């Protein structure tokens, strides 16, 4: 760098003098009579700039010549030796396809989809609201499970598999959603083990409604987004002594109990409501029970003593 810094001014002066000499020798005197000294000044500037950038031009020419010679040498080498030489000279090596199924940091907020989450059908509606966002990843085993269900002879299983494939297709078609179907996956036998292993490798979360997968993932230190837990969390908040209007739809387990549901699906058990099936009555909440299956509300008729 220091040598270039010293050479540039010197080369500019030398090339400027050369330019002056060339112009005076080549250009007829009549041109100088017409243009005056402008032509001479232009020549000095042009040759001076050429001298200033000459070190870079020489360096580029040297590199180009070296590459050309190296290419000719490699072409005349045997194929095996040439392949080894090229591989050793490259700054990186291309990954073998299928060896690495994902890499940490490659995906923004990676979310791995379980088969149960796609079959459930609620995922796409949740994603469209924007509450869940990121890169949704699907491993080949999940696709295989959906296809197996969709081809099942059992009508219910076939419907579930087709719904899962439809949800996945709808997510892929949505412009605001990024879905990537991976070409490779961990080699574990069970699909749940593959999901957990992949999630740990790339720092992803698993989206599921499977209770057992949820527990295994949490024990393994993997974050889980359970759609059922989300649904329970956003259900209508009801407080003791609050009045509700409920349609009694069925008889409860205990004697003289009637059962109805809120708009979000929360079960309401009404004492003394067994003989009110099909009727809409006003009830007063007196107890709320949170269970693993969800929230249950116990109430009495509003006009009952």
Describe the structure.
Residues 237-298 form the TRAM domain. This is TRAM domain-containing protein. The chain crosses the membrane at residues 6-27, 39-58. InterPro entries: Nucleic_acid_metab_PIN/TRAM, PIN-like_dom_sf, PIN_dom, TRAM_dom. There is one protein chain. By secondary structure, this protein is α/β, with parallel strands linked by helices. The protein folds into three domains: 2-89, no CATH class; 110-233, 5'-nuclease (Rossmann fold); 243-301, OB fold (Dihydrolipoamide Acetyltransferase, E2P). The protein is built from eleven helices and eleven strands. Strands 6-10-11-9-8-7 form a six-stranded mixed β-sheet. Strands 3-2-1-4-5 form a five-stranded parallel β-sheet, sandwiched between helices. Strand 10 and strand 11 (294-301) form a beta hairpin. Helix 1 packs across helix 3 (38-75). The longest helix is centred in the N-terminal third of the chain and has 38 residues, at 38-75. The model is unreliable at 79-100 (pLDDT under 50).
Helices and strands in order:
Blueprint: H1 2-26, H2 29-35, H3 38-75, H4 79-89, E1 110-113, H5 115-120, H6 123-129, E2 135-138, H7 140-150, H8 155-173, E3 178-181, H9 191-202, E4 205-208, H10 211-219, E5 224-226, H11 227-233, E6 243-247, E7 250-251, E8 257-261, E9 267-271, E10 280-291, E11 294-301
Parallel strand pairs: 1-2, 1-4, 2-3, 4-5, 9-11
Antiparallel strand pairs: 6-10, 7-8, 8-9, 10-11
Helix pairs in contact: 1-3, 7-8
């Amino acid at each position: 760098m220091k040598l270039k810094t010293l050479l540039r001014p010197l080369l500019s002066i030398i090339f400027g003098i050369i330019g002056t000499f060339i112009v005076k020798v080549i250009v007829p005197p009549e041109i100088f009579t017409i243009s005056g000294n402008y032509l001479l000044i232009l020549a000095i500037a042009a040759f001076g700039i050429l001298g200033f950038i000459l070190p870079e031009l020489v360096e580029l020419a040297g590199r180009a010549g070296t590459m050309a010679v190296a290419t000719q040498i490699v072409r005349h080498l045997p194929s095996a030796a040439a392949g080894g030489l090229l591989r050793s000279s490259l700054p990186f090596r291309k990954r073998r396809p299928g060896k690495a199924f994902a890499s940490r940091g490659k995906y923004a907020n990676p979310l791995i989809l379980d088969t149960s989450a796609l079959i459930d059908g609620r995922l796409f509606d949740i994603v469209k609201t924007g509450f869940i966002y990121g890169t949704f990843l699907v491993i080949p085993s999940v696709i295989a499970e959906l296809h197996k269900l969709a081809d099942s002879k059992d009508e219910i299983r076939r419907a579930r598999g087709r719904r899962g494939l439809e949800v996945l297709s709808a997510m892929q078609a949505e412009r605001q959603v990024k879905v990537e179907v991976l070409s490779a996956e961990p080699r574990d036998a069970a699909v749940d083990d593959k999901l957990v292993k992949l999630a740990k490798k790339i720092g992803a979360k698993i989206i599921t409604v499977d209770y057992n997968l949820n527990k295994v993932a949490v024990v393994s230190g993997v974050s889980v987004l359970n759609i059922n837990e989300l649904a329970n969390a956003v259900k209508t908040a009801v407080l003791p002594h609050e009045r509700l209007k409920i349609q009694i739809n069925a008889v409860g387990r205990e004697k003289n109990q009637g059962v109805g549901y809120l708009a979000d699906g929360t079960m309401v058990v009404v004492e003394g409501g067994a003989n009110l099936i099909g009727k809409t009555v006003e009830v007063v909440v007196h107890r709320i029970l949170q269970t693993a299956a969800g929230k249950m509300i116990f109430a009495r008729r509003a006009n009952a003593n």
